[in-house]
Every structure is written in structure tokens, then in C-alpha cells.
């Protein structure tokens, strides 16, 4: 299998091509390179050769992404009934689908249990005894996996160090008994799962390994014959230009070693790793304003409704000017702000960029993961369009919303 180890940095994208797309489709605009998504999937497959790779759809559940990954042979991990429906529509088969039921609303369980009737190969992961009971109440006795609460987590911030959050999963000590109980009740108990957190870096290897070891000890202690151990996702990508890429090989090797004595298949659920560096967000400067000692404010047409991560997590996204004629402009500290009347509507703070001009196009990196997916309509701002690049062509895969889209569900 070919292996492309290179991280795709924001500077690797061609400025003229991105400017052309901004001119043709307008801004704000998400650009998503589906061929890069496919290569990222291959990189995970190469690191985990015998594992089943289930793409965590929550990172970007656009139909174009899902159907390309289905074509490439990936599986999918879904966080809601809606994601399950979208995954099936995009071409995934029942056997490709893992549905992780985290505090699931009744309607989600109703929908997925109904879908599973015709697709007995679909797997549901429950994170509480109560969820197992609710599945039984609906007559479900199909493939069941249990989510383990490992007690430790890691990630790009405390709020996404999910493994440490007791609301997700069953305490490891209680899992073997619950597996046996579910098996006795007639469920087809197939696996155990845990998720360390999102945005793991090379420094987080030990934390991830601790979670894998917890899973291994649960699998050792159960008398139920498990088919797989699902070690979750969370593999990070470098957001800062100077940050090194995540080295997947040592993580994969340590994971394999920790599970080697067990006769189980390995499942991984990467989201961000497959799509983050395949996407950029294009935006246009519409207001230029001196920011005193802080340099210059560049007001742009994308904001926290377009890309929520900086406002929500204080996340860093690299920003680059796409203008061809910036050599004669002074570099200055630029703070990129959105159009929403919230003081957290800041996409980037104090970046060294050419003195901005009205009309300048800017590109924001690593926008393929948790970008369009977390976009919203706050302040009646329609969500942006998404353009896909595939096999040398570009096409709109999600049209720009309009105010009519926002009001369409309203009744007088
Ligand atoms: C259960 C589960 N699996 C996988 C993922 C994917 O995380 P990431 O995008 O960091 O790989 C998440 C994160 O939301 C998750 O909760
Ligand atoms: N639910 C994920 C976190 C998603 C973080 C993502 N939304 C981001 O933008 O970083 C988890 O449990 O690890």
C-alpha cells in the first residue's frame, strides 16, 4: 500500500487556486480535498494494517466525505441516529456502522433499532446499563458493544479529554459483569470500546496506552467471547506551523502489543485525522481597523458561526493571506474577527500577516474537521457553502444557505 506520511500544511495549498475558488463560489467557503481524505484513510490503514477503521462521522458528516470513505472501504462511527441515516444513505452497509449511543434520546434508539432490524450486522455501543435496558425494552438483541469509562483521558484541551469524563461509559470494574449479564439476556455481545479524547499529540501516547490497557484488562476478565476491542479515535493533527505531526506508528505498535495476547480484532475510530488537513476555510476581509498597540483588526465574513472552534475551545487555526501582491506591505500583528456581536468572535489573535486591505482573501487551515459540522445560524447568519476537490475537479457539495433556509421551518 502506498503511504503518504506528509502532513498537508496550509502553506502547501496553492494560493492562486484558492483565490479562484473564492472568486467563483464566494466566501465564506469551505474547500475540502476528498483525495486527501482518501490518502489520510490510507495512512491510518497502513499504521493499523489489520484493524477496522471506522471514520467518526461527527468530524464532518457531509455526504461527499461519507460516500468517498465508503468507496475507499472505511467503516463509520456514528454519534446519533441522524448520522446513522446519513451514513447508510451515503453508501455504508449495516456491517460498516458502529452507533455509539451516548445518553441517547428515545427517538435515536427507536430509529437505530428499527434500522438494525433489516441490518443485523450493525453494532450498537451502549455506555450505561440503563441504555442496555432501553435497547432490550425495544426488542433489540443484536450486536452490542459496551463503552468503558477508563477514568483517564487526554486531548487538545480539558473539555475534550473525554476518557476522564464519567458521563461516558461504564466504570471498567463493572464492565465484565455487565457483559455477561447482557449476553445472558440474549444480546450478541461483540466488543468493548473506550475513547481517550480528541486531538492527541505525541505527548499523549502514554495516556492513550493506559486506556488501551484498561480495555485489555476488561477483555481478559470477561467470560464472553469478544470479537473486537475498539480503542476509539482522537489522533491529532498539527494546527500550528511549527508543531510536529503525530507519529501514528508507535501508537499503533503499542496498541497491538497491549492486545496481542487476546484473540480479538482491533477497531479504531479516527475523525479529525482523516479530514482536518483536507480542508481550508476561505474568507474575505471587509473591515480594517487600527487596534492600537495590538496592530490591526481585520473584520472578515467568517466568524464563530462558520468556524466555532476558536470561540469554543480557544483553538488555534493557522491563517494565511492569499493575496499575490503583499511583498510591498508591512507585516503587522493582525487580529482576525468575525461579524458576530460577541467578544469571543475572534478567529485568530495577533498573527504576523501583511497589513490587511479590504477585499483580501484569507485562508484558515485545518478546517476540514469540526468546521462545517459545528457551524450554526446564530444571528441569522446562513451557513457557508462547501466545495469539494476530487480527481482534479471542483464542485459544490453543499450550497450556501439563504435567509429562507433559516426561516423555512417557522410557522406564523
Ligand atoms: C466515541 C468517539 N469516537 C471517535 C471520536 C473521534 O475523535 P477524533 O475526531 O478526535 O478522532 C470521538 C470524538 O468525538 C468520539 O467521541
Ligand atoms: N467529542 C470528541 C471531541 C470533539 C472535539 C471537536 N469538536 C473539536 O473541534 O476539537 C471527543 O469526545 O473526543
TrEMBL record:
UniProt keyword Amino-acid biosynthesis, yes or no: yes
Domain Orn/DAP/Arg decarboxylase 2 N-terminal: 35-276
GO molecular function, one term: diaminopimelate decarboxylase activity
Gene3D superfamilies, per the entry: Alanine racemase, Lyase, Ornithine Decarboxylase, Chain A, domain 1
Known pathway: Amino-acid biosynthesis; L-lysine biosynthesis via DAP pathway; L-lysine from DL-2,6-diaminopimelate: step 1/1
Keywords per UniProt: Amino-acid biosynthesis, Decarboxylase, Lyase, Lysine biosynthesis, Pyridoxal phosphate
Names of the cofactor(s): pyridoxal 5'-phosphate
Enzyme active site: 341
Record GO biological process: lysine biosynthetic process via diaminopimelate
E.C. code: 4.1.1.20
Listed InterPro entries: Ala_racemase/Decarboxylase_C, DAP_deCOOHase_LysA, De-COase2_N, De-COase2_pyr-phos_BS, Orn/DAP/Arg_de-COase, PLP-binding_barrel
Source domain of life: Archaea
Residue(s) carrying N6-(pyridoxal phosphate)lysine: 58
Catalytic activity from the UniProt record: meso-2,6-diaminopimelate + H(+) = L-lysine + CO2
Sequence positions that bind pyridoxal 5'-phosphate: 234, 269-272, 370
Residues at which substrate binds: 272, 309, 313, 342, 370
Subunit structure: Homodimer.
Family: Belongs to the Orn/Lys/Arg decarboxylase class-II family. LysA subfamily.
Primary role: Specifically catalyzes the decarboxylation of meso-diaminopimelate (meso-DAP) to L-lysine.
Protein name: Diaminopimelate decarboxylase
Provenance organism: Halanaeroarchaeum sulfurireducens
Amino acid at each position: 500500500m502506498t503511504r503518504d506520511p506528509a502532513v498537508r500544511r496550509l502553506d502547501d495549498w496553492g494560493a492562486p487556486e484558492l483565490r479562484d475558488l473564492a472568486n467563483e463560489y464566494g466566501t465564506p467557503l469551505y474547500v475540502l480535498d476528498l483525495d486527501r481524505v482518501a490518502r489520510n484513510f490510507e495512512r491510518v490503514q497502513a499504521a493499523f494494517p489489520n484493524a477496522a477503521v471506522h471514520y467518526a462521522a461527527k468530524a464532518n458528516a457531509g455526504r461527499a466525505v461519507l460516500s468517498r470513505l465508503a468507496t475507499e472501504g472505511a467503516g463509520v462511527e456514528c454519534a446519533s441516529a441522524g448520522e446513522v441515516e446519513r451514513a447508510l444513505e451515503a453508501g455504508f452497509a449495516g456491517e460498516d456502522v458502529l452507533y455509539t449511543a451516548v445518553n441517547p434520546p428515545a427517538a435515536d434508539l427507536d430509529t437505530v433499532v428499527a434500522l438494525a432490524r433489516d441490518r443485523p450486522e450493525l453494532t450498537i455501543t451502549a455506555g450505561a446499563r440503563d441504555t442496555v435496558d432501553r435497547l432490550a425494552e425495544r426488542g433489540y438483541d443484536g450486536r452490542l458493544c459496551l463503552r468503558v469509562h477508563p477514568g483517564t483521558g487526554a486531548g487538545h484541551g480539558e473539555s475534550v479529554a473525554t476518557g476522564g469524563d464519567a458521563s461516558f461509559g461504564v466504570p471498567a470494574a463493572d464492565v465484565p459483569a455487565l457483559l455477561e449479564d447482557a449476553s445472558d439476556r440474549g444480546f450478541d455481545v461483540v466488543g468493548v470500546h473506550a475513547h481517550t479524547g480528541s486531538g492527541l499529540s505525541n505527548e499523549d501516547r502514554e495516556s492513550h496506552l493506559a486506556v488501551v490497557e484498561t480495555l485489555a484488562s476488561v477483555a481478559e476478565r470477561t467470560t464472553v467471547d469478544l470479537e473486537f476491542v475498539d480503542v476509539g479515535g482522537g489522533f491529532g493533527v498539527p494546527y500550528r506551523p511549527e508543531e510536529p505531526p503525530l507519529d501514528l506508528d508507535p501508537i499503533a505498535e503499542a496498541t497491538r502489543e497491549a492486545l496481542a495476547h487476546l484473540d480479538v480484532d482491533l477497531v479504531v475510530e479516527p475523525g479529525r485525522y482523516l479530514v482536518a488537513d483536507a480542508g481550508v476555510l476561505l474568507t474575505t476581509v471587509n473591515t480594517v481597523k487600527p487596534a492600537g498597540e495590538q496592530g490591526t483588526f481585520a473584520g472578515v465574513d467568517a466568524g464563530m458561526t462558520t468556524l466555532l472552534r476558536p470561540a469554543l475551545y480557544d483553538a488555534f487555526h493557522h491563517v494565511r493571506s492569499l493575496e499575490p501582491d503583499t511583498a510591498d506591505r508591512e507585516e503587522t500583528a493582525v487580529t482576525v474577527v468575525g461579524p458576530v456581536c460577541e467578544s469571543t468572535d475572534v478567529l485568530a489573535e495577533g498573527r504576523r500577516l501583511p497589513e490587511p486591505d479590504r477585499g483580501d482573501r484569507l485562508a484558515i487551515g485545518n478546517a476540514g474537521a469540526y468546521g462545517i459540522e459545528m457551524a450554526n445560524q446564530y444571528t441569522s447568519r446562513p451557513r457557508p457553502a462547501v466545495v469539494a476537490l476530487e480527481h482534479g475537479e471542483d464542485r459544490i457539495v453543499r450550497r450556501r444557505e439563504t435567509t429562507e433556509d433559516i426561516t423555512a421551518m417557522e410557522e406564523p
